[in-house]
Design goal:
Layout lengths: L1 H21 L4 E7 L12 E2 L11 E3 L4 E4 L2 E13 L4 E7 L1 E3 L9 E8 L9 E9 L11 E8 L8 E7 L11 E4 L11 E7 L3 E6 L2 E7 L19 E9 L12 E13 L7
Parallel strand pairs: 3-6
Antiparallel strand pairs: 1-17, 2-7, 4-5, 5-6, 5-17, 7-16, 8-13, 8-17, 9-10, 9-16, 10-11, 11-12, 13-14, 14-15
Bound molecules: calcium ion.
Length: 279
């Protein structure tokens, strides 16, 4: 029985892995960055500088903590006490954030990145992410949708690090279905190795993949998850792409654990031929 289960599991993994390759002729590469040059392409990306993001994060984003080296985008998180005058506060950690806001946005497609996560441990504070958000700040988060292709954190009961994919939607913060995610279930998954993380988003659903293995689907109009008070609506706005690493507030970080680095080999956005819903 166990052997049969293993064979079935392998077949499922193999068919999932092949799904994208077998449909490759339907897809067209619309946007990519291989991060192979010496500097971040300013035509595609903006690095946040002197920006704290939210009150529950311990880092200040500075542009020096996002850079390119040895064929990768590097997001560095470091113990680097820095005074931020608007809130009259010193942030002990600085980190990097780049995004394509106002430079590239897309509706539907397959978004994929190959990346190496920062070193982490039990009850670690490091919170790297590869995600998208609706290209407007004119409404309360997460009204225009947020697709978390990959986040790593350790917010579970035993504080063991894991990666997960999530969709956020709702007219207002703390309303309706504002955070429905799935932890990647492979118990042998090695967080310290390079992996590809991707989503496929169309008008009916979003699928999440790790190394080509699908592990989660969110459907339009689905009433589906714990804490969900209404039906899911997929993004109502074009999305832009974000890479960042935050330092969360759940436990005091140890400065000796830093600096930490996330490396991004590439990011690619494919869309179905003829759709080209991007700008
Ligand atoms: Ca590269």
């Amino acid at each position: 029985m166990k052997k049969m289960f293993t064979i079935l599991l392998l077949l499922c993994i193999a068919s999932s892995s092949l799904a994208f390759k077998s449909n490759a002729e339907e897809w067209e590469l619309i946007f990519e960055d291989d991060f192979n040059g010496n500097t971040i392409d300013q035509n595609k990306w903006t690095a946040k500088d002197n920006w704290p993001h939210t009150d529950v994060e311990l880092q200040l984003y500075i542009k020096e903590d996002a850079y390119q080296e040895n064929g990768n985008l590097v997001i560095r998180t470091q113990f680097n006490p820095t005074y931020y005058s608007p809130s009259n506060k010193t942030y002990n950690y600085t980190s990097g954030w780049i995004d394509t806001s106002f430079k590239f946005n897309f509706t539907h497609g397959r978004l994929e990145s190959r990346l190496l996560l920062p070193k982490t441990g039990i009850r670690d504070n490091i919170w790297p992410a590869f995600w998208t958000k609706g290209n407007t700040e004119s409404a309360d988060w997460p009204h225009y949708g947020e697709i978390d292709v990959m986040e790593m954190d350790s917010w579970n009961d035993d504080w063991t690090p894991y990666i997960w994919g999530t969709y956020h939607w709702g007219p207002r913060r703390n309303d309706l279905c504002q955070g429905c995610g799935t932890i990647y279930p492979d118990k042998n998954f090695n967080l310290t190795e390079w992996h590809t993380y991707s989503v496929e988003w169309d008008e009916k659903k979003i699928d999440w993949f790790v190394d080509g293995v699908k592990y989660r689907t969110t459907y339009e109009n689905q009433l589906f998850c714990k804490g969900c008070k209404g039906i899911v609506k997929l993004p109502t706005h074009p999305q832009f792409i974000i890479f960042n690493t935050a330092v969360d507030h759940f436990a005091p970080p140890n400065p000796a654990d830093y600096p930490k680095y996330m490396y991004v080999d590439y990011v690619k956005l494919y869309q179905k031929k003829g759709s080209k819903s991007s700008f």
